[in-house]
Design brief:
By secondary structure, this protein is mainly alpha-helical. The protein is 81% helix and 0% strand. The chain is built from two helices and no strands. The N and C termini lie far apart (40 Å). The model has no long low-confidence stretch (mean pLDDT 85).
């Protein structure tokens, strides 16, 4: 998607972008935060 947004801006379907932002991004943020917490807890065990 990034390639399309950067190089073919006028061909971007804004409904698709909005769907990704509202549907997919919250889950990705949650998974990223969980991974960060797991890494932090793993680091604390090794100290």
């Amino acid at each position: 998607m990034r390639h399309r947004i950067v190089h073919a801006y006028f061909d971007v379907d804004l409904e698709v972008v909005w769907q990704v932002v509202t549907t997919d991004l919250p889950g990705l943020l949650n998974m990223t935060n969980q991974a960060i917490q797991q890494l932090k807890s793993g680091d604390e065990k090794n100290e």
